[in-house]
Specification:
The protein is of the alpha/beta class. It has a domain at 80-182 and 237-252. Helix content is 34%, strand content 17%. It contains 7 helices and 8 strands, in the order E-E-H-E-H-H-E-H-H-E-E-E-E-H-H. It has helices at residues 67-78, 97-107, 113-127, 144-148, 154-167, 220-236, 240-250; strands at residues 4-7, 21-24, 81-86, 137-143, 173-178, 192-196, 205-210, 213-217. The strands form 2 sheets. A 6-stranded mixed beta sheet has the order 5-4-3-6-7-8, sandwiched between helices. The protein has a two-stranded antiparallel sheet with strand order 1-2. Helix 2 (97-107) packs across helix 3 (113-127) and helix 5 runs antiparallel to helix 7. The longest helix has 17 residues, at 220-236. It is globular and about 40 Å long. The N and C termini lie far apart (43 Å). It holds the Pfam family DUF5753. Residues 1-34 are annotated as: Disordered. It comes from Catellatospora citrea. Residues 71-247 form the DUF5753 domain.
Length: 252
Amino acid sequence: MNHLQWSCGGGGAPGPTSQPRLRPGRPFARQPFEGSIDRHSARCNLRVRLAGESGRRGWWQDYDLPEWFNVYVGLESAASTVANFETHLIPGLLQTPAYARALIRHAQPTMAAERVDLLVRARLVRQTRLTNDDPLRLRALIGEAALHCVVGTPNEMQEQFTHLATMSRAANVEIRVVPFTSPAYAVHGRSVVILDFPGTGDPGLAYFDHLGKGSYVEDDAQVAAHRMAFELLVGAALSVEESTKLFLERGK
């Protein structure tokens, strides 16, 4: 897998003529991204329009997110389509505040309440991409295990299922459950995000996060392989209607 690390040249925000560089061989987790997203600038090595004007800031920089996640949120903010397969959790773009808060507390039990609240608010701002004037298209595949993994209280899980049923009715959102019995898990047994960006000829990229860092795959052939595996999962998943019915039943 072609893992990439982000570098912004001299360590500051890229200027109008500078281009971020990708360094192969190490996880993308070490350096902060200080620029902003420009959805209409030229393609850079990561095949996404990034950081034109110095001094501009992305909204995510006000939430003190981990350095490695700052860049992902910036990329997500520039994307036109997100295809996300989650094996054991509800995708972040579809989490309720209570689910997100419980998940953060499980992962970081000693984190201060104020910090937890800040991260939850950041997640909710991310979700506005689904409902703004230029909405993100979301294709979400949720492993059946996520429906049985209790995050928070039973009432909070019911609220989460009701929210999934509601979001599944949005024209730009597709949510499907991949059942335990699906053989497609053998093809793609880990969570993945595939990001596509506006413009023609852009093959997108694949993203994985794990243990406090993010890794990217930007090689065209490997991105295509991950995309094919995602489509195999789609073919093995329940239909949108069947998935919505399941969410409604579990939300009672």
